Structure formats: structure tokens, C-alpha cells
């Protein structure tokens, strides 16, 4: 008899089995897209006589709607009706209910991507796995799961090693190094021993089974980086030197501290002093982590034509991206004006604050209004720290050209650098970070809709996306970009606006970031987008100087992996970031950085709308050019 006979495996849905897109009204699943390897895994388990079920939180959606969506994509047939259980997963209760329905099962396993939910399943007596790919290995008893750092010897750094890793019960969550030859992964201890035998250098990080109830992050101690080698001015001793927190640090690397954040603890707890923009990064499984470093998905490329816009295009863009337009959009998301007619003020967009959900609703309403019935507006759902959060997406469908162009920003905010800050209660207007980007996306959406209505020329689809949980390590954009990769959407370019509103010192400066280490093809394509913005600045925003473009003359890009554009670069898509002057450089003769002194405090309550609107115009023109040429 197969040793798995008598076993029951429960799966979460969103983020584990499929991506979930919900209607603008929040009452219908508009798109459930099954991840590529899921059907094969489910078939394999069922062939081994494993009984399959679901434990998932549908939120406000009725169970019948979730069943309908599962049936439409061919998932529902894999699950026994009595083993499909819906409910909140913030306690062991729903897992205990699922166990009761399973009856006299030999073993129960819950597979879900959220560490908080896995911890509750463990409390209910279940085994847990963080990904369907590891489910059978856990059931087979192939030893424990643990975090690994795998290094390919320099003299063997050919592409064959990537295939060797893909053949093992192993999840790659991060690659680093000039050629991506250091891989962070979750794997069985048996797989680690196989890697030893194959000649990889394997560091076992943390303790056995730590991946069951933790999420992995890279935390950048920018204060220590500035102080330099052998200078003791950093954050680690104060925050991570003693107590429980000390045990969460797995490694100290050039990228930052590798930390396993336990279930029930927010990464907000590790908010270092004097951090720069984008100081943490959530490490999640990505299908591209083990792709060739020069590999990029095939996408339609715009024609090689001079980067210019017509007087008609310039006139429409200028009319919809005025400083007052940016200010009006901003006011609704920073508590300066009601979010809508009869709506309350949004005082914070922090993911732990109730106003975050109000901001999502307001963005859906704004984009629907701006689209004048022509935008397809949806909510993209994803889990994080025990919550179901949502990104907001609005698409103007294409007319004659292939591919999709994205204009993006992040919607959430934080005041974590303010002493005694309470995320669920205290204000966090986040006017610059990233209310300025939110206002920019809304103004760009208005301009593109007007351009299309006025000119009616062939173009690619244009999508406007606001990401949630960026402040917790690019979580929302990583979920969104990963799902887009699974769907195979041909992304031609991503234009991210993050902190575009602070300019006080004389001499306007702004930055464009396109760097990604070890991915030369992706970096060059991303640089092409940045150069497109730079070429359009004198045509559409003559009040701005030439931007500071990174990377430059071999200097690394200081904003690499620090904003949502990086999530798309990970999957091989060209993407660039427009920002205020956040970093010194490039080059020794460049002006110093002009960092917003109110960064991550409740005092981040205003922006320079003239300056922000100039950046918005240039980004909008570049996005329109990319969509139409």
C-alpha cells in the first residue's frame, strides 16, 4: 500500500493554487488563474490516493461564488465536497473544523503561502508546507524543511546547475551575486544533502522547520552602510542583539541582514533608524529565480523611432497633469479632503489601519470614474501577515498593438519612524511616500484616457496599478508580478512612480532607476525606458533638468530592489522607477541627495505639486509613447 494512502491535504487558494482577481464591486471573482505546476501536483497526489480539500478565507465573497470560480478552471473536481472549508484563518478553529470533516485520517497537511496561517494549522495538529511543490516531500517524510544558502563554485558557474536545482524538492526565493550564483531557498534536509553530494556550497541557515512558521526577508541597515566597516554605528545591537529577535537573524550579507520573521510578528517591528527608501525586501518563491541570467520573456518591442510626441499629444497631457490636478488627487488620500462624496477622511493607508481598505475602495471608484466606462477595474487579492489585502488595477484594453504598458505606484503608507507609532491607530498621510505616486498614476490615467478618446490611434493595452504592502518589502507588487508571469501577459514596460514630490533645495533634480544586477538583458531594456523618459523631459517638462539615470558608468544602482519596479524585473520585464533625488550620484560631481526629512513619519503631509506634476507629465508621455509606437 502506498504510504500516502489515508492522508488528507488541504490547500489555500489565492497565492497557493491560483491568482485571484475580484470585480471592482468586490462581489465576484472575475479571474482565477491556476499556477502552471498546480494541476500536475494535484493529479500526482490523487494518483497516490491522497484525499484533497480546501481551507480558504473567501472574505465577503459567498462560498457559492468561490465554488463557481474553482469549477470554471477545473480545480473543484480535485476536492471532495466535504473537504472544502471556508472561513477565517486567524485561529485554529477553521483548521480544527476541517480536521473533523476529514474523519479518521492518518495525516493532515495544510499547504499555504502565509506563515501566520500555517502557524494556526500547526496549532490544530496539522502538518504544514509553504508551497504545493513541497507538499509531497513533507508527506513522504523526507526530513525537515530549512532555509539554505546555496553557492555555485565560480569555476562551475554554467547554466546546468540551475536545472539540477529545479529537479530537487526546493523553492528558490532569492538569487544574488554578479551572475545570480548564490541562491536562497527553502528545501528539505534531504535535498541539502544531495546538494552537498553534487558539489554545491550549502549553508544551513537557522534551525530545522523554521520555514514552517516564518517569512524570509532581507533587511538593509542603511545607517551601518553609511558608517562603514569597523564603525559600530548600526541598528543590529539595539534591535537584534538580545532576546527573541536575536534568534531571527540568519545571516549578515552584502545585501543586508537575512531575517526569518516569525508568524504573528510584523516586519514593521524591524524598522531600522535612518533607513533609506526601500529598506526591506520580502523573499518569495519566483518562477524566474532559477531562469538563465540573460533570459527574458518574449514581448513585443516598440518600433525604433525617434522619441518625440506631437503637439496634440502634449496639449492633452498638459491639460490633465497640472499641479492642481496632482494636488486634488493627493488630498483625497492624505486626509486633506474626503475620499469621495459622503466619505470619511483617509488618515492612514497603512495595511494595519482600517483606512487602508477605504483607500482601496476610493481608488476603485476614482479609476472607474476616470475611465468613463472604458477602463476594466479589478482588485487583485493576496495574503500577507494573516490579512487578505488588495492591489487595484484598471486597464484600458488595447486597440491594434500587442502587449501591455503599466503605470504604477504603491498605495500604502507608514509612520514607523515616529516614536511610539501605532500602525492601526495613528495617522500616516504618506503624502510623498507614496501619495505623490498615487496622485501621479491617477493623473496619468486621466491623461491616457483623454489621449485615446481624442486621437483614436492604434495602441497597446495600458494598465494603471496601485500596489499594497510595498512598505513591508514589495509584497503586493511581488504577488502581482508573479501572477502576471503565470498568466503570460506580454509586459512591454513598467513605469513606477515612488516619492516624486519632495524638492526644496535650489536646483531641481530627479532620478530614474533601471538597474538589476546579473540580468544584463533586463537591465538594458529597463534603461531604454528610462532614456525614453529622459528624451521626453525637454519636450513635455522643460522645467525639469536632465534626470540622473542609474546605473551609470559601472556604478551600481542604489535603488535596485527598493521599489515595485524590481518585482517586474525579477520576471524578466523591463521596468524603471522615477523618483525625487533620493540618492547621491551618479558620479562624484553630482549634487547631493535631497531626502525628505519627514520620510516614514506622520509629518509627511505635503508635496511640491509643481515639481511632482512635471515628473508625472514626463512619465505619462513615455508610457503613451511606449503604448503607441
Write up what this structure looks like:
The structure is a single chain. The chain has 629 residues and is an alpha/beta fold. Among the domains are: 7-139, Rossmann fold (3-Layer(aba) Sandwich); 345-628, Aminopeptidase (3-Layer(aba) Sandwich). The chain is built from 18 helices and 23 strands. The strands form four sheets. A ten-stranded mixed beta sheet has the order 3-2-16-17-19-18-20-23-21-22. A five-stranded parallel beta sheet has the order 5-4-1-6-7. It has a four-stranded antiparallel beta sheet with strand order 9-10-8-11. Helix 14 (431-455) links the parallel strand 18 and strand 19. Helix 12 (323-331) crosses helix 18 (609-628), helix 14 (431-455) packs across helix 18 (609-628) and helix 16 crosses helix 18. The protein is globular, with a radius of gyration of 24 Å. It starts with 6 loop residues before the first strand and ends with a helix. The model has no long low-confidence stretch (mean pLDDT 94).
